[in-house]
């Protein structure tokens, strides 16, 4: 074992003996693994997408999972209720310092809504615009495997791609790349107010726009994982199936996908913006932002805590409105 790696291992166990966390051990062992790979050549299951390299998790003999890969800028603060911004690859490159990004664990899911009276929503993270990529072991650029992009269901209110893993699919049929998409949900993804007609104030249906941005990321970077960007099929179940139908209907960029599979499509009456007006007023008031013109209310809501917004969305869904 090279001396540099021996020193790292020694430091790890010294820290453990001093009472440091097992999480530090995991991070340290990852560093040892990567150092070993650098000594012997490129480590396995690492994909270079150009602006960063990602380490995947070989969960099956024939499948590697690359989990929680960003596809857009985090929709935080003033970016709440705005269309997703394309990923700032310069920022990502600078933040990784040329290192390998650990993509071996599932990320936090997008903030959930309430699934029923008495069930509190709010779990999850706003920094959730990520994809999981399941690829055949050893897949390289140029393999040109067809790609399946999956949108999860949950009534546009809840849902977690972790509950729909696809590594076993790839393991059984190792000639396909599968991508599952995290997108904003409930009030964080589908708040509607008339003032959004002026995009200076915000954007409609940002949850759907997240899905579009994910498809754009796939077009640019899936080839690094062995995928063929010209052979993309979109697939979804329930609300994900409804999303597929909407993308087929409102597809403004014919190059984002070539096929579509909609399963158990979830449809619900969609109120007009005018019909949503009292719901927005109720939501803003419940979040402590009900005063002043709509622009002031939106500014207040963008500065509100996630917990305040989660309570307000629960009240709007199952409260006294």
TrEMBL record:
Membrane-traversing stretches: none
Boundaries of every Carboxylesterase type B domain copy: 59-315
Keyword Metal-binding part of the UniProt annotation: no
Signal peptide feature range: 1-41
InterPro entries: AB_hydrolase_fold, CarbesteraseB, Carboxylesterase_B_AS
Pfam family, one: COesterase
GO molecular function terms noted in the UniProt entry: hydrolase activity
Record-listed E.C. numbers: 3.1.1.-
Enzyme class: hydrolase
SUPFAM superfamilies: alpha/beta-Hydrolases (SSF53474)
Family: Belongs to the type-B carboxylesterase/lipase family.
PANTHER family per UniProt: CARBOXYLIC ESTER HYDROLASE
Protein name: Carboxylic ester hydrolase
Organism phylogeny: Eukaryota, Fungi, Dikarya, Basidiomycota, Agaricomycotina
């Amino acid at each position: 074992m090279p001396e540099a790696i021996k020193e790292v291992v020694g430091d790890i166990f010294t820290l453990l003996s001093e009472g440091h966390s097992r999480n530090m051990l995991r991070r340290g062992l990852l560093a040892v693994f990567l150092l070993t790979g650098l000594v012997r050549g490129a480590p396995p299951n690492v994909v270079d997408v150009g602006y960063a390299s990602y380490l995947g998790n070989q969960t099956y003999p024939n499948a590697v999972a690359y989990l929680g890969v960003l596809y857009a800028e985090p929709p935080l603060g003033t970016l709440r209720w705005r269309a997703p911004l394309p990923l700032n690859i310069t920022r990502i490159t600078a933040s990784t310092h040329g290192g390998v990004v650990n993509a071996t664990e599932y990320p936090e899911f997008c903030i959930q809504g309430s699934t029923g009276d008495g069930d509190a929503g709010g779990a999850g993270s706003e920094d959730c615009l990520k994809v999981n990529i399941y690829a055949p072991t050893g897949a390289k650029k140029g393999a040109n495997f067809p790609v399946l992009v999956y949108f999860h269901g949950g009534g546009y209110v809840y849902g977690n791609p972790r509950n729909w893993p696809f590594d076993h699919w790839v393991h059984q049929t190792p000639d396909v790349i599968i991508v599952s998409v995290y997108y904003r949900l409930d009030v964080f993804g589908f708040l509607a107010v008339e003032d959004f007609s002026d995009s200076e104030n915000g954007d409609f249906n940002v949850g759907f726009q997240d899905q579009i941005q994910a498809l754009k990321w796939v077009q640019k970077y899936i080839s690094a994982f062995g995928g063929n960007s010209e052979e993309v099929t979109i697939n979804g179940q329930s609300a994900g199936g409804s999303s597929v139908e909407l993308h087929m209907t409102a597809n403004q960029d014919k190059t984002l996908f070539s096929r579509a599979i909609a399963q158990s499509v979830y449809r619900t009456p969609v109120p007009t913006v005018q019909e949503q007006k009292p719901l927005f007023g109720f939501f803003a008031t419940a979040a402590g932002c009900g005063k002043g013109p709509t622009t002031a209310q939106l500014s207040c809501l963008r500065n509100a805590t996630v917990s305040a917004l989660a309570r307000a969305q629960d009240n709007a869904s199952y409260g006294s409105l």
